[in-house]
Amino acid sequence: MDPEDLQTFVAVADAGGVSPGARRLGVSKSIGSRRLFRLEEQLGVQLLARATRGAALTEAGVTFRDHSARGLRRNRTGARGAPVVRDDTPRPGIGGVGSMPFASQRH
Q: Is pTM, for the whole model, over 0.90?
């Protein structure tokens, strides 16, 4: 699932329509619509009941909006708040010092 699709869905749900949601994200209405249709197709469920004057969340949309928003917040927080851990310690058996050559490499 594309994070941009989730972000678009949350923006549209919060703004009450595809046009205002797309504007919030700085994308065209057609791109916003495309992302929403792709997300609904992947999930196999309609998230928004579209009308000429906006969109209303379906029951599935309400539930999915909350999960999506939490997931997006967690990803943003994790990306900024998580320390980068780098461990270059050689491990036996994983190409490091003391690893055994493959049988085909033995002479």
A: no
